[in-house]
What we know:
Layout: H1 2-20, E1 50-58, E2 62-70, E3 79-90, H2 97-103, E4 105-106, E5 110-114, H3 118-130, E6 144-148, H4 163-171, E7 190-191, E8 194-195, E9 198-204, E10 213-221, H5 233-237, E11 253-260, H6 266-282, E12 292-299, E13 306-307, H7 326-345, E14 350-351, E15 357-358, H8 363-373
Parallel strand pairs: 5-6, 11-12
Antiparallel strand pairs: 1-2, 2-5, 3-4, 3-12, 3-13, 7-8, 9-10, 10-11, 14-15
Amino acid sequence: MKKSLLLLTSLFFFMLNVLNAQQRVEEIPLKIGVMQSGTLNAITDVEGVKVGHTTLIKGDSVRTGVTAILPHGENIFQQKVPAAVFVGNGFGKLAGSTQINELGNLETPIILTNTLNVPTAMDAVIKYTLNLPENEDVRSVNAVVGETNDGYLNDIRGQHVKKADVISAIENAKNGSVTEGNVGAGTGTIAFGYKGGIGTASRKLPESLGGYTLGVLVQSNFGGVLQIAGVPVGQKLGNYSFSNNLQNNVDGSCMIVVATDAPLNNRNLERLAKRAFLGLGKTGGIASNGSGDYIISFSTAKEMRIPYKIKNKTLTQKVVPNDLMSPLFMAAIEATEEAILNSLFMAKTTTGFKGRTIKALPKEEVVKHLTKAGVLEE
Length: 378
């Protein structure tokens, strides 16, 4: 009897420790959607994509950072990639977005940081690009920098991100697994009243649907009524937008970066970005008045690259036709939904500026509600 009781007690504390530890959504285990994820279930499953972070945690007031996303490891300015931007709600500062949509390409790394450090990040990206070999004669650089406002947990007016921090994130970017949660541009962010951050996920299409890979990375800092696999978790936890305006502000922003190896042009990349916005909606986000919700999408397909120096009078590109886009649309929705949830599941309780504390998502309670709803994998 004592041995059985001891075993049950040990099992209870083991499960408690498991639930309190940082876990991705798939480790609960919970499957989002119906499509297969990539090997890493990260944006870096798309061949060539690199991600780098600089995390700034200083004293009791600095909780911010930088996240860099590179479409490939070569000179991006010399080998531009097709890209597009979709604006879900424009209360934000996505530098470089108009040129992306006008010309249909991306020529620098994508940088994510906090609202008041966008100019610093732009300056850093410009300097980084001008200093690359082959760019000695370049006189114009379209630096792409997105942001969310982390001013609740971070001394944002101090503008603590420096150019060296941005360049470090770019130069340290790598393939492979991506650190999530309180890291880089997600160090001081808040989502659905809980600690938000960086999250990522991917989907791999079967060969019959093209065999393409699509990955998403998010910087979550927005509000609404949290839903997980259709379960109204935010409502059940009693923590949702307008339930307590002081502690759960719906405003903030969400930056979403979508990468795919499918050969897509600017037009279909914009259509793809629109579907990623649906993924944000599936988590319960409402794109509030003060939330800057932006999606940047790009294709890494080598045959789609746009060289800086054009040698021929025409470019020949083979693209995925409209009628075959729907599987990619679904992949973008599912990967975005899971990336946002991963940003919450991987975040830690944080105390920052003025002693303010934002708690991590209470995973034990969440699992209880998901179990009751019957959505967890057996």
